[in-house]
Design brief:
single chain; about 240 residues; alpha+beta; 3-stranded antiparallel beta sheet; 19 strands; elongated
């Protein structure tokens, strides 16, 4: 009976370890795939304490957190590209009307004059979606306060929000995030928007490769642990049969 309990405990520990490794590998592969995605924020798989994992009410053994540190800036020469101040996020609207946040400042006008991201999401201004008439499109620029201008005329101001202290971003994919809208800070002054620049991904490939190698080694050790537990169980069964 003691051998059975030890073996089952070992199998559970190894299975939990492998699941944690899988979560880390998913986050790492996603980060590496988005190394060149403007405004992308590194995802980090953080494991729960072992006592919490063993809790019967636990629904997962890891959580994904967003590394919100700013990436480097790169000049693009495109007047509609913007790099946002630290901690600010563009407010965007998806096709179903839901609002999401993003640090990807690569913007463009579609055929109807609607200001959108390169991924096709609608950019929201102070009065909703931003649409530029044909005669206003010749000298568009975005100033340091996030105002869209056509010459000397202010057409609208891009809505950029920040999160209140203690709030976290939940990644949705494609460089977009969601967060509790009740915790958005939209009242603080907006300064420091840089036109014709894009913020690069904050992923460092060398760092991700270190995580990848360490996670792979840990997974291999968990597999060896499973193999050892299986061999021990087989020996215990064989010996039991020899004495019956």
């Amino acid at each position: 009976m003691l051998t059975r309990k030890l073996t089952m405990g070992t199998l559970e520990i190894a299975a939990i370890g492998l699941q944690q490794d899988l979560d880390r590998l998913k986050a790492t592969s996603h980060n590496l795939a988005n190394t060149s995605t403007a405004g992308y924020k590194r995802q980090i798989a953080v494991q729960h304490p072992f006592a919490g994992v063993m809790d019967a009410t636990a629904t997962s053994i890891a959580s994904t957190y967003t590394d919100a540190r700013a990436g480097k800036l790169a000049a693009t020469g495109n007047a509609l590209d913007i790099a946002m101040p630290d901690g600010r996020y563009l407010l965007l609207e998806q096709e179903d009307g839901t609002q999401v946040l993003s640090r990807d400042g690569g913007l463009q006008l579609d055929a109807a004059g609607s200001l959108r991201t390169m991924g096709g999401l609608k950019v929201l201004g102070q009065r909703g979606g931003i649409t530029v008439r044909a005669e206003q499109r010749g000298s568009l620029a975005i100033d340091g306060q996030g105002q869209l201008r056509s010459g000397d005329q202010v057409l609208d101001a891009l809505r950029m929000v920040s999160l209140k202290a203690g709030q976290f971003l939940q990644p949705l994919g494609a460089g977009t995030f969601t967060a509790d809208a009740n915790q958005w800070d939209v009242d603080s002054p907006l300064l420091g928007v840089r036109s014709a620049f894009l913020e690069q991904s904050n992923v460092m490939p060398s760092q991700e490769m270190v995580v990848l190698m360490s996670t792979t080694r840990h997974a291999e050790s968990m597999v060896r642990l499973l193999q050892t537990a299986d061999e021990m169980a087989e020996k215990a069964i064989r010996r039991f049969g020899e004495h019956t």
